Amino acid sequence: MPRTAGHLIVDTLAAHGVERVYVVPGESYLDVLDGLHDASIRTVVCRQEGGAGFMALAEGRLTGRPGIAMVTRGPGAANAMIAVHTAWQDATAMVLLVGLIPFADRGRESFQEFSLEGWFGTTAKRVLSVEQADRAGETIAEAMQVAATGRPGPVVVGLPEDVLVQLTSAPVPAPRPVAAPAVPAAQLDRVVERLGAARAPLVVAGGDGWHGTTGAELARLAEAAGLPVACDWRAYDAVPNDSAAYAGWLGYGRADTLAARLDETDLLMLVGCGRGDVLSEGYTAGMDAPTVLAVPDPAATMHDGRIDELVVATPAAFVEALAGVDAARLRGARDDAWMRALADDQRRFAAPRPDGAERGVDLGVAFAALDELLPADRVCTYGAGNATLWGHRHLEHRAPNSLVGPRNGAMGLGVPAAVAASLVHPQRRVVAVCGDGDFLMNGQELAAAIATGAAPLVVVVDNGRYGTIVLHQQRDYPGRESGTDLVNPDFGAWMRSFGGFGEKVERTEDARGAFERALASGTAAVVHLVVDRETMPAPTDNRPDAGPETTGHAGTGTTETKETR
After folding, report:
1. How far apart are CA 460 and CA 443, in angstroms?
2. 555 against 540, higher pLDDT
């Protein structure tokens, strides 16, 4: 029976296993919304297009299948741009469907007209448009395949309003296969030979694609071969953090000792990620190390510097190939001393300690308490800024697919990602960590949490300022802080007005109880932590002879960070 192109699009998404779409409705794609009315797909109504896009990105990262967002033309597409840019730089699969003006109105500067290709052409893997009703399903199938193939990323699909209502007898297309290249035997032998000969190798796991047992398998073979494994920025869930091989993370807030290892290693093996500026301390560390790069992208996009062996493979395919090799060949003459040293550095770095603040909640104590209260399979989501580094430092990841954070530094992702994570994994505890500036970028999506029954815990760290920018100003313009102060409401009371749980905490001794009550509430919850205005990230000098860390304030060895929106 003939159906409209809009309904064919919905049927195609369902055939691809899509369970949820994140939408801000618009008159430009009414026929798609009508198709969703009777579909098996759940429609999650969001309050702003950036939030919808971030939810789709979170779904893509947690499941490995492209997340789907739907927005309207012009202003709606503009709001969604932040999620597309994040998905592009983070290499996360998502598909953004954008309603467009009718064909007949093009080129007249019609209401909300814009150039889809012009806006998204440099920040998406592909920009498509449904220009024939008969090809509506094929276009969606192509978008789903492209988003997930090779280096994952965003695909943008335009939906002209008049095409959507045209009838078509075209069938629903089957999902297109996604290639998973195997590691050639000869190349695997070369990689194994390099690992066996290395005295001080360092494996860095990152990017997306660490699903199922892949990370645990990498940790197992690394322990057997004496290989330390670090994680790239905001990919700390790639391997279990309680592994004897785990060496911490690279990027903002990392331990000084681990950053130094980049220049000590005689073999850097990057799995799932490239050597970008964050990982390499601004293209200054580890640039000359012999490098094995194992990524699904033959173009090695977003990798800079030396490559001695390029293996085109997903993390799963590469780890599976290595797992079939005798551990003795991977180890060579190397003992465990190098691996143990890096693991000891990280354990010392992550050990609970007070932040030394004179007023407000001590974040070192608070986050250590939260780590104890959360189950091992918790999912942590993050926005951007200094506040998130306390969560990175104290909230361990022992289960796969348990972290969603913007590797490109986009603010406002934490709350919508937590809502999506609660829907994707309703049986797992989800917690978002946000600064006060970050929280109100997309805090309105807690309305979507209440509407859908999602129950994340959102921890808001409130120092009354854009702390990351203050840190830069103190360094570059001392005594001249400008444009960074914030005036905040009681975020706990604000959350209660939505019908959720909310509590404001101003003393360290009250934090644990607030977390316990929030986690027991059975609903979306906000715990508002008021901290010392001068609180910054904890110092990163964790050398054995560095002495105890007593403060997290600027000017005491705090790591510089350029993470902004």
Report:
1. 10
2. 540
